[in-house]
Known about the structure:
This protein has helices at 2-12, 128-140, 151-160, 176-189, 209-225, 272-275, 298-311, 331-346, 381-384, 402-406, 414-420, 424-441, 446-458, and strands spanning 29-32, 57-74, 84-103, 112-117, 143-147, 201-207, 230-234, 263-268, 285-290, 360-361, 365-366, 388-391, 408-411. By secondary structure, it is an alpha/beta fold. The chain has a domain at 2-261.
Amino acid sequence: MxxxxxLLLALLLPAVVATGVAAAAPAPTVTPVPANAGxxxxxxxAQGVLDLAARGYVEQEYLLSGQADTYAQDxxxxxxxxxxxxxxxTGNPYTTRMVVVRPDNPARFNGTVVIEWLNVSFxxxxxxxxxxxxxxxxxxGYTYIGVTTQKAGADKLKSLDPARYAAVDLSSDALSYDxxxxxxxxxxxxPELLGGRGPAVVLGTGHSQxxxxxxxYANAVQPVRGAYDGLMIHGRAALAAPxxxxxLGPLSAHIRTDLTVPVFVxxxxxxxxASNSVRQDTARVRTWExxxxxxxxxxxxDLYNAANARDRSINDGAPTTCDKPVNSMTFRYSENAAFAHxxxxxxxxxxxxxxxxxxxxxxxxxVRDGDQNAVGGIRLPDFDAPVAxxxxxxxxxxxxxxxxxxxxxxxxxxxxxxxxxxxxxxYVAKFTAAADxxxxxxxxxxxxxxxxxxxxxxxxxx
Length: 462
């Protein structure tokens, strides 16, 4: 367990806070990337992976250019997150890219923009939160924007498609915090990014290593820049990223409680041991822990593998494999619900429901039932009417470190399945009841409830 936590932290870290007041850098510029530039598609984008046109959406890529500030720490940063900084340097030129996925008919845009701090733990931009919640975004009319925020992602773009990304240049991760602020600024000042319309709400999101940086952003930069209307911090550990170019930031970091915007902390089962010391539910911070889920899962991996086969960015394009079947729990349902709650919350609506935490023994071990599934936490219908045991970690594999985060799915024995569900009708009834409980609790959206129940009705169980 300790080795798993250490490796999780190591993978969360690759990459970097902010609070004295200074004037923001000059407004950034945006430039469309020609669709046929270079190889003809955005690296890590949806082309050839998802049929966006059939969903009434388009994908466009822009260069974002400007001058970024860097920040330095003031005083001691304690675990309450009330951190002070000052601007260390100004006028640092940069050019990065933004992948915009929006309704092709601007009238369908619902006013909500989700900007993702793309994850670079494996050396290339990975749109983790898009991979989990794109169906929700499309259903509701969101605009999604993935931003290359860190040097590793920018450098990889140039190596994978030098013709398309010749102008991209992020000299240092110390620029990342202001680049992320300027991405939100661009959305508010460049209506062409949104098909000619302005946003009502701009939400920032990031997963894993990006979540550590968003923790720092929330505590040190958001109070100064005020760039976002709400933040989704997904898959964090207790620590935070440094404000400059270092490797390690504060080892323990709650989200500061004096923010004027809401923060949603969304955790998988993989994440809880490494983050349980900073659990919090306050007037402006909500934490959900989703039982049976992994830091990354099969649903997301299917998209990563397809994009990787096209881009050949990791392992020469080969699909990621592990020793055991990857976790297939439906984490995406809770992430969809979390985004819906955060959107409403950021618009002045009610706070999301408080959820029970996953049960831990001595803060180090997840308490499990007789089927080896976790006790406590948010319980989705696929978990409360189980046909498998769902683990937060895996092993082996062809991408070092990846399988530790991908979890496992171990089917229950046939005899146990028949004990739980004597016939198919019993399974559907128990599954439907579990789905309705999650729906009433606010952990499942109506559209996802209906999809899940329809899936159960056609499942060959027992």
